[in-house]
Write a structure and sequence with these properties.
- With 189 residues, the chain is an all-alpha fold.
- It has helices at 28-33, 48-62, 83-90, 97-112, 114-131, 146-154, 161-174, 179-182.
- It is elongated.
- It is built from eight helices and no strands.
């Protein structure tokens, strides 16, 4: 494909065109508040008593009555910034095929980086708390409560594999979209 100028390639647009549910996402301000009790409102198929149990647990954890170590945890996100990665990508000229290929490789490396993936996982976990199936099935990890969310935020690389897989499954199913992650140069953390 050519741009309007003959002989010039169409510029790299992948980092400007995103796909997802722009109504179902999380912001840094929402994440900072933790998991709200509303995440445990029963949805179709959820067990009301099970939801009630976890709503109570969430409320207690958010008040600090159960998770005595939360104040000692570091927030993993504070140490990570996505904006420099996207700025470096924007600095690559894409007015020729070599530059276009370099920009494409750089973007692929950026979205596959551990920092990007872990940041996305943290925000996806917050959204997943709302759509988590809360029916008491022992094959499924327990719902994400305030304490679990704090644990994920402090070390997203060391969460239980089944929890990670369920978060990723729900993120894929519901297409969570976090504006500040999709466009870190426009909405910096």
């Amino acid at each position: 494909m050519e741009a309007l100028e003959p002989g010039k390639p169409l510029t790299f647009l992948d980092h400007h065109i995103q796909c997802g549910n722009s109504l179902l996402g999380c912001t840094p301000a929402l994440l900072k508040k933790g998991i709200p009790d509303a995440a445990f409102t029963p949805l179709t198929g959820d067990d009301k008593a099970y939801c009630s149990t976890f709503k109570k647990l969430n409320k207690e954890e958010s008040k600090g009555n159960i998770d005595i170590f939360s104040s000692e945890r570091d927030d993993w996100l504070i140490k990570r910034k996505l904006q420099p990665g996207i700025s470096a990508l924007n600095d690559i000229a894409d007015d020729n095929l070599a530059g276009l290929n370099a920009k494409e490789r750089s973007y692929t490396d950026f979205v596959q980086s551990q920092d990007y993936q872990n940041t996305k996982l943290i925000y996806d976990a917050w959204c997943a708390a709302f759509v988590w199936i809360k029916d008491g099935d022992s094959q499924r990890p327990e719902p994400i409560t305030y304490g679990i969310m704090e644990s994920i935020k402090s070390d997203p690389e060391n969460i239980d594999l089944s929890l990670r897989q369920e978060i990723m499954r729900l993120a894929d199913e519901y297409k969570f979209f976090h504006w500040h992650i999709a466009f870190p140069d426009v909405f910096p953390l």
